[in-house]
Structure formats: C-alpha cells, structure tokens
Amino acid sequence: MEAFHLLSRGGAKFDKSKFKSDVNLFNGKKSKAANASTSARAPEGELPPELDFFKYAQGGQGKRKASEPNGGADAKGKKRRVEEDEDTEDEDADEAEQAAEEDDPPMPRHRVTTKGNNVPEHVETFEALRERYNIPSRLLQNIAQSGYKRPTGIQSHGIPILLEHRDLAAISPTGTGKTLSYLLPVMSALGAPAASSKSNPGSGVRALILAPTRELAHQIHNECLKLAQGRKWKIVLFSKATAATLADKKVREKIDLIISTPLRLVASLQAGNLELNNVRHIVLDEADRMLDAEFLEQVQEVIAACTHPEVQKAVFSATLPANAEKVAMSMLRDPIRVVVGLKDTPLPLIAQSLTYVADDQSKLPTLLQYLSQPYNPPVLIFVSSQPRATSLAEELVISGVPNVDCLHAGMTMKEREDAVSRMRRGESWVMVSTEVMARGMDFKGVREVINYDFPQSVQSYIHRIGRTGRAGREGKAITYFTNEDAPFLKTIANVLLQSGSTVPEWILKLPKPSKMKRREMGKVKRAEAVNNARRIGRSDAIKKRDMVAASKRRKAKETQSKTDGATSSPHADGADGESA
DNA sequence: AAAAAAC
C-alpha cells in the first residue's frame, strides 16, 4: 500500500507545468474543433435528427424502445442530434481560477420541452430574473463572480419554475448546470439567516438537498458556499461529525440549509436530533438513483419528516427511466416536467466507442497498451467493484503508469477526500473508480472515460461517460466489452448511435437476446464473477506484495498492544483488507 | 439484472 502511494504520487515523475501546458494546448485545439463542428452541423439543419427529437421529446416516456429500430437502420452520423447544451456548471471552490483560464467553450443550445399547468416563462439572462422576481442582487453578483454568464437550457427554464414555488421534475444532460438550477432559487428564497431571527420560532432548516454520494454532496456544498458569499446562512454538509453537534437544540435551530446523503439524515431523525418541520424546499439530485430500491425508503422517511404544508419539491437528473419518473411524479404536487435535449441520451460532444476484449484477462493488456500511447489526462476508469478498483490501480502503478489514483467507498473518508482533491488539482492522470464517481461529479478537466468493466445499465453508462464533455467541452469515452457482456451490448450500442457515435455493423446485427437467454447468461456471468473477478490481474508482483503485507499485518497485530496508534499507515490495512 | 453506495 505504501509502495502504491509512493509510486503513484512519485514526485519526480510528475511535471505539473508540463501537464498544464498540455492541457492548454488541448483546450485551444478542442474548442476550435468544437466550434467548427457546431457551425457545420447546426445550419445544415439535419432534419432527420430534429424530427426524431420532437418525436421523442413530445412523446414523453418510453422513448428508448421507440428509438431502437431506427437507431439500427439509419446508423451513423445521422443520429447526431443538435448540439446541445452546455453551460458553465462549474465546479468547485478551488476551481475558480481554472474556470477563468479555460473560459467559455461554445454553448450550443438544447431543445427544451415542458409539460404541466401554467408553466412560467423562461428567462434568457440572469439579469431578467432580477427584474421579474426581484432576487437578491448579492446572489446575482456571486453568480457572475463564479463565472456563470448565460443560463443554460435547464437554468433558463427551471429557475423561474422554482422561483414561483412550483414542483419540478427536471431532466437535463450531464454537465449542463443542474446544480445552479436548484441552488439559485433555493438560496433566493432563503431569506434571513435562522440565527438572526431568534424571536421567530418558525426558522431553522428551510431547505434540504439530497444526493447519493458523499463526494457529490460535498461538491454541491462547495457550489453553495460560492453562491452564499456575503450572507450569514448556516449551510451544513451533513456528516457524522456535524450530526454529533445536533444534540444541542440551539445548534440545529441555526441551520438554514442542509446538504446530505439520505441515510445520514435518517439516522439523525431517528435519534431525535433533527427537526425538518419547517423545510420549504427539498431537492433530490440524481433523482432516479435516489428513488431506486435501496434509497427510496430512506428518502421517503426524510420527506415524511418535512411536514410543512408548503414544501416545494424538485427532482433533477440526466436520466429518469419511466418507473423512476412515476415514483417521482407521485411525490410532486402539480408538477412541471422539463426535458432538455433527449431524455436518456448522452451528449454528442462525447465521442464514444466500443472495444472488444474477449475476456476479463484481456482487459489489462488492452488498457496498458492504450496508456502506453499518448492520451489526454486525466482519464477516469470505471470498474465494477471496490476490490477491482484497488487491484487495477495497483496493477497500473506496478506497470509504471504515472500518477495513478483510486477512489471507492471502501476507502476512509479522508482517503476519498484526498483523492478528489488530487483530481481537482489535476494531479491524477489516471483515476480508477467505482460507481461512486459515476454521477454528478464535475471535474472539468476529464477528457477521457474508460469503462473497463461494462456498465450495468444504460443509466450507469450515460452518467459514467458524462464525467467528460462537461460545460460544452468535448470528451471521449471508451467501453470495453467481453463475450460475457454480449447480452447487454446492443442496448448500449443503441445509446451510442442515438448520440451521434458510430458502432460497428456487426454489433448492430446482433439479435436482441430474449429475456430468458439474458437471464441465463446473467447466471453464468455471476458464477464466473464469484470465481475470478474479484481481482484484476493478479500479477506475481502483486501476489508477492500481498503476502508481505499480510505477514506485516500479522506481526503488527502481535505487537499491537504495545505500540498501538503508532503504525505509520493505519489506513493501508483498511483499503487493502480484501486481499485475502 | 446486479453491484455500489448510504451508516
């Protein structure tokens, strides 16, 4: 483990300034290319995709099915719909300068469709919001300072809806500024800080934002702090530590806004340490994820605790499958539904491809080969489990790949945070991760995503590759597939087609496997997974290292009673614990 | 259809 950290961080190898200039070079080139392709495509009018678009957008649900047939038929460039989007959702606090230097990529507009009663008119500029809704000018200032210039599609439509206190289901592609779409209205409605109105018993937590991972909650919190500059609101990123302070009622009464993962909040509710009866705004980010089986109960419990009659609810996501949408709509009151671009379709800005790799063993050589040639760092690599993330990262380090990092939820909070910061600072060239990183995370610099392990759903695919191509930048996504992935290959291939990437003929000719067949193959896959898929490569080097580590641990245990906290790397055992 | 994440 220590070897891993040393190697991957290896000071000598990492030449930051060089990296930076590479990045700049890339940016310059790319934005020109993006401009060119935009202007080339848009004016030509590409009728077929446009027509397709309207068909789907107006039809509402079930588009995926409808799209499959012609996806196969007209193939290729045809399916490339209008360029959409983009905005400037930026990231994180420490990224302000980076944003400044990268400046504005082209911002093609998305088609937007809305459905619902009395839909408020959209705005073209942030200034228009002040005229119409009288939102605090300090907030507008902070928005400008954070580098936001023009509202994106979801912002110009979603913000007025939320400012008029309507419930909203918003579907907008990855990297198109959803975060600001809900933060601005919520913060605009927040009013005076709870701490300042002691006489008012109706203060306390007035807004709640729920996200599926700690990392995403943290990122939202950062964004929130930027918008809140100059105000005295107490904006809390919920964690074990902050939850512990809530035993004191005075502390919780001063909170204005909470950003949290659901379970954390449920724990505090059940402990009787939190009142949500004055919450006026609830936002579910990554809504389809928040409403799937594992989270639904928790989310419902939180929502049930928000008993104020005027509570406004909003759900946001880049994907919203029909069943999730049903659940979402049933929670909302007289909702408005806004769809930007094509539902469940990635951005055309992302150049996607599929790579055949026969079987699991063939993946590592393929990846090493890829990384031995010039690529655009940072690359984000997705695998299907924590142990696979750990061992793939180790294999890469051992193979001499520079600046390799790893991030999964089995790591300690500190390790996770450190990994994210390295990523944000541009120090990671190759980041190996699990689904934790698949949703919402906004690393502007990510130019390439590799699905080392095949994604388990269309939604997962869309979100994973959506880590690149953000805010109008171009991106590249490669997906490895093995024979075992065959049953799900065609579904993903159709997603590629829909978003303007090309797919080899033979894949399109694959029959759609029957449900039974899929189930059968699923079984085989699972059985094999149990047998061999925990670790990636199992090189001799790693085996040896593991044995050494194991014996060290044994020794450490024996002497533990004496030396206790003195071990140099308490976290190493945890992260490496699965090595058995 | 299934793992990851949430604590």
Average pLDDT confidence is 76
Question: What is the CA-atom radius of gyration, in angstroms?
Answer: 24 Å
Q: Would you identify the CATH H-level superfamily of the largest domain?
A: P-loop containing nucleotide triphosphate hydrolases
Q: So how many helices? A: 25
The low-confidence runs, each spanning 5 or more residues with pLDDT under 50, are 1-102, 527-533, 557-580
Outline: globular
| Quaternary structure annotation | single chain
Strand order of the largest sheet: 1-8-2-7-6-3-5-4
The CATH C-level class name of the largest domain: Alpha Beta
Architecture per CATH nomenclature, i.e. the level-2 architecture of the largest domain: 3-Layer(aba) Sandwich
Q: Main sheet?
A: 8 strands, mixed
The proportion of strand residues reads: 5-15%
Structural class from helices and strands?
alpha/beta
CATH level-3 fold name of the largest domain: Rossmann fold
Count of DSSP E strands?
14
Helix content class: 40-55%
